[in-house]
Input
Amino acid sequence: QAQLVESGGGLVQPGGSLTLSCVASGIRLIFYRTAWYRQMPGRERELVAQLGRDGHTTYADSVKGRFTISRDSSKNTLDLQMKNLKSDDSAVYYCHAFPHWGQGTRVTVSS
Output
């Protein structure tokens, strides 16, 4: 049974950094199209960053140059490094290995 568990969310000041991590069990992430999504209150879930099985990455325009998605095959984890965070980045972040979802981890960017 596939399970994705996110961690690393929390409260950070504008301009700060956080790294989110997603640990997978029951599946090997290297065989899946993986991504991080986020959902802000009252809005639809949106794609933040995607990492394909071939290693190709794509990012939402709003996070390009600030966020980096990566995968550690030995640990079976999917990470999202976030730098220069802005208040608009506040959301619940979800790990996705199609078609599986994690439960989400909340990121709040506020002074």
